[in-house]
Amino acid sequence: MATKKETYSDAMQRLEQIVNQIGNNELDIDELENKLKEAQKLIKFCRGKLYKTDIEIKKMFEEEDTVKK
């Protein structure tokens, strides 16, 4: 499950493991439900990281454009 100390790479790696388990039919129905919930949290965590990074990159480019003018 995603925590504040978890990195994007950690979350993606865990998500890949879950996807592989589902794809290989390694989970019973009870485990599947729990893994899907965990996957949703990991996806939300990763989207948040990507969104924040995108905003920071845009800010850097805007600041650079301002300095050049």
Number of strands: 0
> What is the structural class?
mainly alpha
Instruction: Characterize the overall form.
Output: rod-shaped
> Measured on Cα atoms, how large is the radius of gyration?
17 Å
Report on the biggest sheet: none
Q: Topology of this structure?
A:
Blueprint (H helix, E strand, L loop, with lengths): L7 H16 L5 H40 L1
Helix pairs in contact: 1-2
Structural notes for this entry:
There is one protein chain. 81% of the residues lie in helices and 0% in strands. The model has no long low-confidence stretch (mean pLDDT 91). It has helices at residues 8-23, 29-68. The chain is mainly α and 69 residues long. Helix 1 (8-23) runs antiparallel to helix 2.
Q: How would you summarize this macromolecular structure in one to three sentences?
A:
The protein is an all-alpha fold.
Features:
single chain; mainly alpha; 81% helix; 0% strand; rod-shaped
